[in-house]
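Re: beginner question about structure tokens

> Can someone show what the tokenized structure looks like for a real chain? I only ever see the sequence side.

Sure, here's an example I had lying around. Input first:
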Amino acid sequence: MITEKIFLASQSPRRLQLLKMIALDVEAVKLDFPEESIEFSNPENYVSKLAEMKMGIAILQNLNGIILTADTIVSLNNKILNKPENYSHAVAMLSELSGKTHEVYTAFSLSNKGETITGIEKTEVKFKNLLSSEIESYILTKSPFDKAGGYGIQDGWGAIFTEKINGCYYNVMGLPLSNLYQKVKELLKIGQV
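And the corresponding structure tokens:
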């Protein structure tokens, strides 16, 4: 069991919930980071760079414990779908995802006592063909506006939209828990001889 305190440098309530779900001692700390300052090359490199750059800023806070930074993006045909800016943007985004398979990438960085480990996870999500009334009903819940790709797989409508998933479900929520847990053990040298 991991007993060290983890400082989650993120304001994501879903990430905090996920970490608490696996009984980790976790505390969220605020991190100001201008994501628009990163140039896009490909989704995997982009999300990895975001997590690494966030770690550079988080380390400056002199936190006493394990620091975790992460970022999750949704990609369709090598195009990043960020959080929707408004109602019409959410409609366009969900319409674009309708009937297609997209990728969800989460990159994370862990740091403890000067040592840093990174990880990345990719999950493929296939959406069923969505009716415009389904899209509109979901957007009216206001849930899409704080989520990359404009949906949360754990939401009622988000769950209904999903036809098939290939990879880690928790990654789509914002943290690949199994991968992350193994990296924390690696960072703390748990189980190593």
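Each token stands for a local structural state, so reading them left to right follows the chain. The chain is about 35% helix and 25% strand.
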